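Input record (one chain):
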Amino acid sequence: MPTPTRPRLPLADRAPGPGTAASSRPPRVDWRLRFAVLALVWGFSFLLIKVGTQAFAPFHVTFGRLLFGTAVLAVAMAVRRAGLPRGARTWGHLAVAAFFLNALPFSLFAYAELTIPSTLAGICNATSPLWGMALSLVALSEDRPTRRRVAGLGLGFLGVLTVLGAWQGFSGIDAAGTAMALGASLSYPIGWIYVRRTLAGRTESHLSLTGAQLMLATAQLAVVTPLFAGPPAAFPLLPLLAVVALGALGTGMAMLLQYGIVAEVGPTTGQMVTYFIPVIATAAGVTLLDEQLTWNTPVGALIVLAGAALTQSRSTPRASRQR
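The corresponding structure, as predicted from the sequence alone:
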């Protein structure tokens, strides 16, 4: 989930360095197939959250997700001999990134799905590029507004209002749950901007930084979960398997996939997975969880995705268009 946009890996804008897998050997599986698997895994993550919260508290689901995801990355780091980053300052920045890119959004989505369908959570996740564009205009001086990007921002939020049925007074929509899902989507670009400002140019590999980031997020939930949730009363098999899959596949394996795709074809192509996640999440929720779908949900989702695509586009300079 992204990180999408689920979540961008730290330093995703930098070309793979000496410590990355992309520089040591060619990938065995075509990036298009890995891209499809990533979209499926992140799309189904919202269904897995819903199944997990049927038996476990939201913090339990989030802690389990981070724990199993960290285990996968720890194994990958051991296999590739990727050491942990050094320096207290770096770890401090990674702790902030872990909060905004993992601990906070994962927890908010888990709490949101107590009261809203997984389909709506998946669509809310697609608003992350819209939040990112709005924030980057303020926080990043190199990101200049263009008519196309501003139009995409307005179109995207019009799509959000369509999904929520604004003309009906938002009837049938849980306001708190929806706000938490939108807050989770807002948390991602906050984390991305922070990483871009503080960790860009590091010499460590993406795997090393991402592994450390996920370890810190797991530690954060290890402190919070006992205080607010206590131990689980039982461990039903299906919800437990959902949490394990959410962590091992939807977090650990997904981060490795995204890490490899971005290193091979670049962040622009890699982040396009964001546009497939709500489609898969909606299909999974309707077919497997029997969630109800009204006309405004898919129509609004398409509008959101169109707006998000516009915010990520770049206008061709006028001089080059005249040639």
